[in-house]
Design a protein that fits this description.
This protein has 119 residues and is mainly beta. Helix content is 0%, strand content 63%. The chain contains no helices and 11 strands. Strands 2, 4, 5, 6, 9, 10 and 11 form a 7-stranded mixed sheet that branches. The chain has a 4-stranded antiparallel sheet with strand order 1-3-8-7, with no helix packed on it. It is elongated, with a radius of gyration of 14 Å. The relative contact order is 0.33.
Length: 119
């Protein structure tokens, strides 16, 4: 099967930076796209950024502050978060659209990592 494992969350002061990582492992044939989402308490899950091989997109709420990147050899996606605000506090999840064993394609999710920004 396929697993996504996030890391890098924690507590940071407003204005600070954090770098999240998400590593994919398992019976992976191809990774078509990798994305980051977040969910704040009492709110719906929000898409943040996507990095397919040909384009990169960001939500307006993070544009100019967050940067998504991917290391294809390591099957890892990163989220560099700068100029953090208290409203960035949330559980951050990565998701990937992956072709895996038996030539099937599916979306997989990580378990999430907590980011807390103190004001």
């Amino acid at each position: 099967q396929v697993q996504l494992v996030e890391s890098g969350g924690g507590l940071v002061q407003a204005g600070g930076s954090l770098r999240l990582s998400c590593a994919a492992s398992g019976s992976i044939v191809n990774i078509y796209s990798m994305s980051w989402y977040r969910q704040a308490p009492g709110k719906q899950r929000e898409w943040i950024a996507t990095d397919p091989s040909t384009s990169t997109n960001y939500a307006d709420s993070v544009k100019g502050r967050f940067t998504i990147s991917r290391d294809n050899a390591k099957k890892t996606v990163y989220l560099q978060m700068n100029s953090l605000k208290s409203e960035d506090t949330a559980v951050y999840y990565c998701s990937a659209n992956i072709r895996y064993s038996m030539n099937r394609v599916s979306d997989f999710w990580g378990q999430g990592t907590q980011v807390t920004v103190s004001s």
